[in-house]
Amino acid sequence: MTQVPKDHAAQVLNPSLGSRLLYPAATLVGLVILTLMAIDVDFTPARFMSGLDRIGRMLVSMVPPSSGGQFFRDLKALAETMAMALVGTILAALMALPLGVIGATTVVPNKAVHFAFRRFLDLFRGVPALVWALILISVFGLGPLAGVCALAIADAPHLAKLFAEAIENVDDKPIEGVRSAGSSPLQVFRFGFLPQILPVMASQCLYYLEGNFRNAGVLGMVGAGGIGFELQERIRVFDFDVAAFIILLYMASVALLDTASRELRKRLS
Fold this sequence. Notes:
- Residues 78-261 form the ABC transmembrane type-1 domain.
- The chain is an all-alpha fold.
- The chain has 11 helices and no strands.
- The longest helix is centred in the last third of the chain and has 40 residues, at 185-224.
């Protein structure tokens, strides 16, 4: 009974040569791989310090931030970014709703169909909005339309998965209670089913709206318009004080949207 623990203790106190060399060798291999990766991305101390010097000069030229007489133009671009995020989120939710219904095991119980459908959604979930934007800009041209479609296509598979899980987690007891009162199928759906899934879905959509407002700014920098495009233009002509003003305006808008969305989600939960 005590032989095994004694052998184990002996192995711990007196490890074999292979065990002693295993961790140092693994650490050495890891360091070599990390060094090769750093060389591959040109992450050298000289290059890094050169970048820090330029960042310092850029930050100095950002002070004080200035609208450059383009305040209302920036507000319009900000509104365009918000519209891009809002419309993209609504389109994504509309696309995700039927997909979520099909993806719920309580609606489609066939395991093979469910597995194939989830893997199909996974294929699209792996493509970020930026990639969709680059593809769709070549289709629709520069402007917010490509950004709206990119956000919708990128978000729809994610929301579909969340919607499917919301449907699967519906509690049958409220539904049975409404049904036992002699309600019609439509009333059962309205008063037993919808109150359980709508707050969850609305909360998820609000959460994605927050993310899409940030993503829309990035998409604007690759040609989808909005505040991202204005920021990219200012940086391109080294107008850093105006760029700083746009960044501050954008940060304030993101904070405002996050706060409003968080409060709404608290009320829905």
